[in-house]
Specification:
The protein has about 150 residues and is an alpha/beta fold. It has a single domain, classed as Phosphoglycerate mutase-like (Rossmann fold). The protein has helices at about 15-20, 25-40, 55-65, 80-90, 100-110; strands at about 1-5, 45-50, 70, 95-100, 120-125, 130-135. It is globular.
Length: about 150
């Protein structure tokens, strides 16, 4: 299972009610498009996301490329309880990609993992517990080599 953090959406807004509607910024939209190359070869049956705008926008290009519907679930919102998060994970197949927030990952793994914007964790069930087993860095635009002319 892949657990993805939404791509860049600029600075957090002062009001949590307004912040729900914060959309991806230019860099975030570019990273979202690059997710197709980063995850297009992973066997994915479902794409499940927090209903917050930045999460939905992050997975839209990948869902479209894979011809999968985007499922919005409140259990992936930043203020979700650990019980609700675990209940959702238990019902999903291993071939799922979830787009959620730093707070959810911190709640799930007790602040033990680094989870940058646009980055993903591959998680597995090990003896009844969810464990991060791999990290996929955010897809970034490749740096052009600089050539110095003497």
């Amino acid at each position: 299972m892949l657990m993805l953090r939404p791509a860049s959406a600029g600075e957090r807004l002062a009001s949590p009610a307004e912040d729900r509607f914060r959309t991806l910024d230019r860099a975030g939209r570019a990273d979202a498009r690059r997710l197709c190359a980063a995850f297009g070869d992973h066997p994915l049956d479902r794409i499940v996301t927090s209903p917050l705008a930045r999460c939905v926008e992050t997975v839209e290009p990948l869902a479209q490329a894979l011809a999968l519907e985007i499922e919005q679930r409140a259990e992936l919102e930043p203020d979700s309880s650990l019980h609700d998060i675990l209940s959702l994970l238990a019902e999903l197949p291993d071939a799922s990609l979830l787009c959620t927030h730093r707070e959810v990952v911190e709640r799930l793994f007790s602040d033990e993992v680094v989870f940058e914007k646009g980055g993903a964790l591959r998680i597995e069930r090990v003896r009844g517990r969810w464990v991060p087993v791999d990290y996929v860095a955010p897809p970034r635009k490749p740096q052009r080599a600089r050539v110095t002319v003497a």
